[in-house]
Amino acid sequence: MDIRKMTAADYGQVYSLWLSCKGMGLNDLDDSEAGIKRFLGRNPDTCFVATEKGKIVGVILAGHDGRRGYIYHTAVSPEHRRRGIAAALVDKALAALREQGINKVALVVFSENKDGNAFWEKCGFTVRDDLSYRNKTLAEMVRIDT
Questions:
Q1: Quick one: average pLDDT of 32-49?
Q2: What predicted TM-score, i.e. pTM, was given to this entire model?
């Protein structure tokens, strides 16, 4: 298994991987090819894919706003799980964020995603019970839940 920076050319394989993973929350704007290309343009050194024999088997999107780091859409293909790929991707993304001066990282996991929550807990990410997560949609979008 190799880990390398994600590029816009990886989009097709990455999107197919996300669709194969239960518990992903995608939408037709932010997760479109144009949306991911824009994200990679802002975060060229913090997003990674894991490959085996030329095929993408894992992905992590990470970025920051200059103060806080954020992780999005971490996924490993179901047939490649339990081999340390996700942990290696997280380590790579956290190291890249540290190199850019980021000291704290946040992420969102759906409450019903038990496997995802267990994974992030194992990685040392804690639940913040003192916060209410809020968002506001600025454009019409179609939600795609896997």
A1: 98
A2: 0.94
